[in-house]
Amino acid sequence: MIKNLDIQALERMRTRFNRLYGPQKVEQLLERMVQLIGRYGIGLEGFSEADLWDETSAVLITYGDMIQNGDEPPLKVLKRFADRYLSGSINTVHILPFYPYTSDDGFSVVDYRAVDRKLGKWADVEDLGREFRLMFDLVLNHCSRSCKWFIDYVNNIAPYRNYFIEEDPNVDLSAVTRPRALPLLTPVHTQHGDTHVWTTFSDDQMDLNFANPDVLFEFLDILLFYVANGATIIRLDAIAYLWKQVGTSCIHLKQTHEVVKLMRDLLDMVAPNVVLLTETNVPHEENISYFGDGDEAHMVYQFSLPPLLLHGLLNGDSSYLTNWAASLNDLPPKCTYFNFTASHDGIGVRPLQGIVPDEELQKLAARVKSQGGHVSMKANPDGTESPYELNITYFDAMGDDPEQVTDHHLARFLCSQTVAMSLRGVPAVYFHSLTATRNNYAGVEETGRARTINRLKWDESELEKQITDKASPAAKVLKEYTRRLNCRAQHKVFHPDAGQQIINLGSEWFVIEREWKEERVVCISNFTADYQELTVDDRLYRLNRADSCSDLLTGRRYMGDGKVIPFEPYQTVWLKI
Questions:
Q1: Domain total for the chain?
Q2: Is the pTM of this model over 0.70?
Q3: Most buried pick, 278, 376, 490, 534, via CB within 10 A?
Q4: Residue 529 forms part of a structural domain
Q5: Residue range(s) defining the domain that contains residue 162
Q6: Catalytic residue positions?
Q7: Which of 180, 207, 234 is the last residue in one of the domains?
Q8: Contact 505/404 with Cβ under 8 angstroms?
């Protein structure tokens, strides 16, 4: 069977298995890989490699039950909303973990191959996938304490007795990077005695032992199962913490990168139209390390973008954002950014390290608190704590007054979203950004978790009421957001592979030039609360001085030399030159 497969890819896998598990196991693991591919049959008939993304690519990030209607399966309700409002503007739906779970709003998985019955069935996922591409989570750092794997571990049943990481609590683990201020080890009573098990995130999320190749192959099987069930983007959740080695930080270890590269090798061989996305909420240089040399992740989250946009627009100062965006290096082929401003989590601030001074971060945290948000802390190796993320809806974070929505609030928010869809990469929209959702205070009080502030579950009738009320923020934002995404999808210049250059016109402006062959668009955003005018001159023209230019978003044309473009507060113009 090996002769039917890509020999070069198999050789790369051989090298990776050797680095992970040593030369003695390589041939056995390679044969096991071939059998795994044969089991699913994916790609063996030959895949025609389509574009991984283009200018129409845009992702909705949502829980499967973000909209509810009585006893109707929420996945059916989600499909109805997507069909009605998102056709032409969004082409991919990221359903956050829709598997049976016990905690962490889905990220403590009980059964990786099942759909949570409270959400629907695999048939409902398939139905959604008829009109939209699908993105699934591979939650591979840990599983639920109630997962059969862990239950069998406790009962000393093979092969699961070796699926988890036992550690002596007296061992010095002070160097380990901690994403949450919780104990790293959790005591467990098992059939083979009392022990302590590694738990990076909580005592209900039991870390899996990837030093055991059985665990790796369990997840390679799940990966192909998701592809067989329609996934075209696979999100590797919390991948940075995957491999554990005492005496190290246990984050971004070389073995973790090898595992991601092995998954990329597998997908390149059997499903080259499927994109691998790593989720690593860390400083920028660490984040982009997951591109490897173009042989690792296809996409990484642009984690620095949400807090930089927030800081820039709230302060009327784009300088940190401009300097950061100008510093972004060219990417390897078949690699791009996942540009988002909000997600199911809060606004991570660790990615600001080295970009924004600490005192500016403290001011930003104080501003979020004044808007009704919370600030979550992480534990540092020296025993201190520092801000980890800002918990607030992105819409409310852009506000001036937590009690009301002003015109400036709406304009500021839409500016942030338009910048995100202008940058090189694939734009991703969190559901509550589409609907201008306010802070979910009742949810936080109910769960006791700060992240619930951004995880409201809409009643379908109430959401429809908001959307059909033309005066409501939800109606205004949804209409304008989807209109701008539709406009973007019509122009090749917004292809994720199109060229990008940042133009510095001063701290009041944020300017991105996008270019595809003969087409050139300059995306200009007024980052201030003031009316401004901008003269179109050689800074924007470069060598091509046109008689006229036009705004793709409004259709307005500007004629003659010394064209002056008026900007309302927080307005963005997509100037085709």
A1: 2
A2: yes
A3: 278
A4: yes
A5: 145-207
A6: 237
A7: 207
A8: no
